[in-house]
Amino acid sequence: MELKGRGIEVLKSFSKIEMKEFGKFLDSSYHNTNGRLSEFFNALRNYYPDFNQNDFTDETLYSLVFGKSKYNYQVLKNLMSQLYKKENEFLVLQALANDKNGQKIYLLNELSFRKVDSAFWHELDKAKKENSSGKTISESYFLYSWKLASSESSYLINRGEQEKTGKLLNEMCENAIVNFFSSIWVNTYSTLVFNEFNYNLSEIGKLAETFLDSFDFEKVAAVLDKNYDGSHYLRHNLQFIKLCHGRFKNIGSTALDMKKDLMNNIGKYNELLKFQMSENISSLFAAEINSGKLDNINEYAELIKYKQENKLLFGSKQKYLNPLAFMGDLTIIILSKNFEYAKEFICKCEDLLAPADRKDLIKLAYSRYHMSIGEYEKVIDLLASITTPYFVEKYYVKGSLIKCFYELKDYEQVFSIIESYRKFLHRNKNISKTHKEHNLAYLSYHEKITKLKIKKDTGEKIDKFHLESLHHEIKSAPRVNSRVYLLEKVDEISAI
Predict the structure, then answer these.
(1) pTM here?
(2) What is the pLDDT of residue 27?
(3) Cis before residue 389, ω within 30 degrees of 0?
């Protein structure tokens, strides 16, 4: 009987490096005292990463662990259950290892509980200085500040020094307000409004109406302005949400209707809001594109042309065009198949880019253009000449090379780059969790697609249900880069 279950699904998600680290985790007597569990995992490793080989059965695994002993289903079931628990422990420790702020909060709470006062104040002071050391305070600053103040307040209350908590509680309230709007309310609200395209906004309005109608927006805006370099952005976001709330309360439309309404009326808004409005309309489109919906791609490309013609490609507070915005807009133009305008867009934006980054960014932009018209050798040459490490990391040069070598049927290079890029993502602590998840998912799917393409090229029959399942999996994946491209590649194999 084939072995299935949550434990196997978790192992499938592990990279080769994570499999190695999990093996070390199980071999450590501090984390695991069951030697059989390590043996069981080592037996499972023989079937990584697919775990679907013909001999991947309960009986085979049991014999690998227990030798010639009589097969006992309950023993194997217990091992699988224990393994799943250890996998979860490992994942929690992995996540905590990447959460430096979370580590500090846990440490402060433990030092407070153990009454190690000198160490508590030393670590708290150090954490506050580190949190305020950035040139620009990010949205996470407020949540972390609130947690630090909460730890300090709990410390004082537990020692009977409540009178010292007044100022702290006031700071906690301010940080809670800003964090709520910058990280929680804005994101949650935007997700509901911008991603559920056919969801009636009046229904969302019922969830938000009481809160929004009674909230003092000006008070929040004043808090945003206090010692926060990014306050203008959050202030605009706040005004945008207030405006949208007022609109959809009256019209009861869907998000797509709101998007069209905003586009038709964008010229009426004051200068302060124009850039933010265009950015938020872009967010509506971007969410659609990322979900694999290209119905409105031409409309989105027209918006980009509108932004360029009206000098809305970047805000008044910015000196140069944001590289991410530049490459994102270019990608949309290319997806709309307007290749002539893509070249024109690159040319017109060149002088708007920061001088230090301009040369490599333009190379990267033209590589996207040549990729779109099938000139893969030119893409490889351009990418090979990029020297700035920032672009290698942030703009997925390796991801583009994977696509080129795939199209040129150099599959050995494809697998080599996938593996090296996967290691790079796992080892680099400076890459955000979201960035890693999007790229690791892309690598995993492209690896599967490449294996299927090799089978197809060699005349091997491919199960149609397998292709349909993969297509559905990619389309419904919560986070994945190049979703549209991956879906196209699956469709190409299906059509051959």
Answers:
(1) 0.48
(2) 92
(3) no
